[in-house]
Amino acid sequence: MPLSKGLSFSDWGLRQRDFAEILNISSANHLRSEYNKFVELMLMYALVDCNNFFVSCERVFRPQLEGRPVVVLSNNDGCVVARSNESKALGIRMGTPFYQISGLADSGKLTACSSNYVLYADMSRRVMSILADAVPKIEQYSIDEAFLILDGVPEDKIPDICRGLVKKIRKWTGIPVSIGIAPTRTLAKVASHFAKKYKGYNGVCVIDDEAKRTKALSLTPVSEVWGIGRRLAPKLRSLGVETALDYVKRPSDWIREKFMLHGLRTWMELQGKACVEAETEAARKSICCSRSFADMLEDKEEISQKVAGFAAQCASQLRKEGTAAVHVTTFLYTNRFRDDLDQYFPSATIALPAAASSAQEITAAALEAFRMIFREGYKYKKAGVIVGDIVSADEVQLPLFGYDAGLRQKNDALSRIMDKLNPVSAPPLLRLASQKDAHYADGIRCEHRSSRYSTSWDELLEIK
DNA sequence: TCTGGGGTCCTAGGACCC
DNA sequence: TCTGGGGTCCTAGGACCC
Fold it and tell me: Of the given ranges (A93-102, A139-148, A397-406), which has the lowest mean pLDDT?
């Protein structure tokens, strides 16, 4: 099949069928036009990544932590979720349970911070708004990462723009960032790792020619590639694939057979052929609220109050986003680390007669599911509620029969009052009776939490 | 003693229908 | 009594990301 620019599918080392599948194309005519578009699309992507983000946020308000080993802990001060370069150098790994390194903290060799998501969300908002002001469009990928969409920006200007952004963000927010620039998202990720790792780049690394690409891939362990996780990395190593370069050198059939479509996408991206699409701004499909308990719980009433609290939080989030959900799932976990105890990981899903977002309806369904799965005699460590099949609130279809429209109106009205009265980031004043005094964030251990410097005047004034 | 939370996508396999 | 295969839908589980 002849194609534009004298290229054929085999030049890409791909079968036509795989190509169509990767780009999610079904008709043959469509395939040709999409392929031509694809070949001509030669965008550059820039990935902005905040360095050790949670640690950097803590350091902005406690500069004495600069240059010292610091970690940020998960909820319940359970395990390490962020590390400074100095704590990485101490050999502390991501996900390490805190009790294994609390000795270092006690002896003053390490500073451990409980996580403070209100602070991190606010700092993230500041960084993102600087980026959004500087380029035509950004795609926020996570709390600490964003892709810059540089349509219409001359390619040779991009590195300078990015170097300017690194300086500006550091100066205005105190957060250090690294930027990777490359023709695909996956390669931009690789580039950002280099920008972060080697001081000489001054925070910006560009992969824009074949020599740089090959060099970068040969220095990148396959386990660090975006899309290759902790399960696949050992499998790849056992097959003799150590570096990202080893990976792209394997034929596409081999990749396809062993790692399927997902692996093939990564393979193309590493060759510099973009096929990971933009994150669509589609609404989310589910919302989850879950917590581990500081201690294991056995009492049915106590756990049901927690579940009611998670459900109320999900409902509140739905209303905030102007959406409603059809399915409500409740799940329970026993303590998976305790081999000596009986294990039980049940879940149940309730389908509502119509998509809902009121605290009453979501909570009632979550509790119904809870009653279906709860068994006496287990020690529960975690519970949660997921609301799924989310639709926009103004598109909710009400059933014709067997449905109390008046009750729904009352429920919605009460929920609106709760939204007005309850503060955004503090325990709510108004709760359902089933919640008793349970708020989704209650009962969480956080003995090392910093102040909410950026969002609370009282706490800002405490800075010494 | 102590081990996070919140998402997405893909695939395999079972149920069911014709 | 014996025996088939294809399509669709759904769900559970596994992989990934931060």
Answer: A397-406
Strand B contacted by A330 CB (< 7 A): no
Q: Which nucleotides of B are covered by protein (CB under 7 A)?
A: 1-12
Token readout for A272 is 């510099």
Return residues with beta carbons within 7 A of strand C: A 141-145, 189, 225-233
Give the closest residue to B3 (Cα–C1′).
A97
Q: How many Å apart are CA A375 and CA A368, to the nearest integer?
A: 14
Instruction: Say whether the CB atom of A309 is under 7 angstroms from strand B.
Output: no
CA–CA distance from A267 to each of A221, A238, A252 (Å)?
14, 18, 8
Angle between helices A185-197 and A252-270 (to 10 degrees): 60
Specify the range with the lowest mean pLDDT, choosing from A59-73, A231-245, A389-403.
A389-403
pLDDT at A306: 96
- Nearest one of A12, A37, A31, A15 to A273, comparing CA atoms: A12
For residue A196, say whether its CB is under 7 Å from any atom of strand B.
no
Q: How far is CA A308 from the centre of its chain?
A: 25
Share of chain A above pLDDT 90, in %: 66
